[in-house]
Amino acid sequence: EVQLVESGGGSVQPGGSLRLSCAMSGFTFNSFEMNWVRQAPGKGLEWVSYISSNGITRYYADSVKGRFTIARDDAKNSLFLQMNSLRAEDTAVYYCARTMYAWGLLGGVGMDVWGQGTTVTVSS
Amino acid sequence: DIVMTQSPLSLPVTPGEPASISCRSSQSLLHSNGYNYFNWYLQKPGQPPHLLIYLSSKRASGVPDRFSASGSDTDSTLKISTVEAEDVGVYYCMQALQTPYTFGLGTKVEIK
């Protein structure tokens, strides 16, 4: 069974740091591009970051650029999100999501597998 | 950034009746491969989003055939042919053409 399990969430004061992890199983991790998506309480979905299958290419939402870093460890089948200089507006459930591919097409076409999410609360 | 605009934001439905949700993108989602990069997700309470539709009209694996979608390079409509009670939740459209990937605000579907 394909599965993504996030961990590392918690409560932190503004300006603090957290490192989220996403462990995956049931598929060949190093073949897939991966993403982080977040959802603030009672709000919609916001894409946060992307990393290519080889870890070289990384993209970030403007709202987190310069503060968050996405990384992967293929040997551990894990995806990470290092979050620094946290702000109250970073409070959200953070999901890792696998990029989906379609037969015959180059590149991803969306996100097909999502974890259950881990909650980050930034408050003084 | 590409802005995704959904309507309506709230949709009361009756089981057994059809329902539809619209999504408009601020830019064309047409890829050079000829596909429009619209996705549709359903998020049930307390759960992560679940992929329903990708490439504008392709149903994801395991999605019931009562769900369908169609449209153009800037518009997509998700249709439920016959609503079932389990279809309640928030539906999101998303553009997967370019980063930052962006979502609509969501349409909350609930039983009348």
Q: Can you offer a commentary on this structure?
A:
The complex is a heterodimer of chains A (124) and B (112). Chain A is mainly beta and 124 residues long. Chain A is 0% helix and 53% strand. In chain A, the strands form two sheets. In chain A, strands 2, 4, 5, 6, 9, 10 and 11 form a seven-stranded mixed sheet that branches. In chain A, strands 1-3-8-7 form a four-stranded antiparallel sheet, with no helix packed on it. In chain A, strand 7 and strand 8 form a beta hairpin. The radius of gyration of chain A is 14 Å and the shape is globular. Chain B has 112 residues and is mainly beta. In chain B, strand 5 and strand 6 (58-59) form a beta hairpin. Chain A binds chain B through residues 35, 37, 44-47, 50, 59, 61-62, 95, 100, 102, 105-106, 108-112, 114-117, and chain B through 33, 35, 37, 39, 41, 43, 47-51, 54-55, 58, 60, 90, 92, 94, 96, 99-106.
Structural class of chain B: mainly beta
Strand count, sense and barrel status of the largest sheet of chain A are: 7 strands, mixed
Q: What portion of residues of chain B belong to β-strands?
A: over 45%
Assembly context of the chains: heterodimer
Q: Helix fraction of chain A? A: under 10%
Q: How many beta strands in the DSSP annotation of chain A?
A: 11
Alpha-beta content class of chain A: mainly beta
Mean pLDDT, all residues of chain A: 96
Q: Could you give the distance between the termini of chain B?
A: 36 Å
What is the gyration radius of chain A calculated from CA atoms?
A: 14 Å
- The shape of chain B, in one word, is globular
| Tally of helical segments of chain B | 0
Largest interface: A-B, 24 and 27 residues
Number of strands of chain B: 11
Give the uncertain stretches of chain B in residue-range form. none
| Proportion of residues in helical segments of chain B | under 10%
Rg of Cα set of chain B: 13 Å
- Poorly predicted spans of chain A: none
